[in-house]
C-alpha cells in the first residue's frame, strides 16, 4: 500500500522485473494482481518479508541472492508507528527492529 505500492507500480510500468516484498500474503497478492493488471508486466512477483523478524530478513535475502541473477535497486519502504511496546521473538523491540534493524540487515545482506 502507499508509497511502496506506487514505486512498484512505476517500476513495473517501466517494464522492470519487480519483487514485492510484503508481510501480508493477502495484501501482497492483491497488490500483485493490481500491478500486473495495470501494467501488463508479468515479471512482477511476490515474496514474503517481515522486517520485524531478522529470521525473515535472512531467509528473504538468502532466497533473492540464490534465485536472482542481479539486483539493481532496493527500496526500503516498510515501517510502522504507534505500536504498543513489544519484544520480538529475537528479544528486540518491535518498532526499532521493523523500521531500522530489519532494513539495515536486509541492505547489508543483499550487498553480497
Automatic annotation (TrEMBL):
<keyword id="KW-0560">Oxidoreductase</keyword>
<dbReference type="Pfam" id="PF00106">
    <property type="entry name" value="adh_short"/>
</dbReference>
<comment type="similarity">
    <text>Belongs to the short-chain dehydrogenases/reductases (SDR) family.</text>
</comment>
<dbReference type="InterPro" id="IPR002347">
    <property type="entry name" value="SDR_fam"/>
</dbReference>
<protein>
    <submittedName>
        <fullName>RDH13 dehydrogenase</fullName>
    </submittedName>
</protein>
<dbReference type="GO" id="GO:0016491">
    <property type="term" value="F:oxidoreductase activity"/>
</dbReference>
<dbReference type="InterPro" id="IPR036291">
    <property type="entry name" value="NAD(P)-bd_dom_sf"/>
</dbReference>
Amino acid at each position: 500500500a502507499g508509497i511502496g505500492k506506487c514505486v512498484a507500480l512505476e517500476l513495473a510500468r517501466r517494464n522492470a522485473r519487480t519483487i514485492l516484498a510484503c508481510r501480508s500474503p493477502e495484501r501482497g497478492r492483491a497488490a500483485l494482481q493490481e500491478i500486473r493488471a495495470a501494467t501488463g508486466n508479468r515479471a512482477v512477483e511476490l515474496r514474503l518479508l517481515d522486517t520485524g523478524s531478522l529470521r525473515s530478513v535472512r531467509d528473504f535475502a538468502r532466497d533473492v541472492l540464490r534465485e536472482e541473477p542481479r539486483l539493481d535497486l532496493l527500496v526500503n519502504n516498510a515501517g510502522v508507528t504507534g505500536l504498543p511496546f513489544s519484544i520480538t521473538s529475537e528479544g528486540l523491540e518491535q518498532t526499532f527492529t521493523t523500521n531500522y534493524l530489519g532494513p539495515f540487515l536486509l541492505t547489508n545482506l543483499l550487498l553480497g
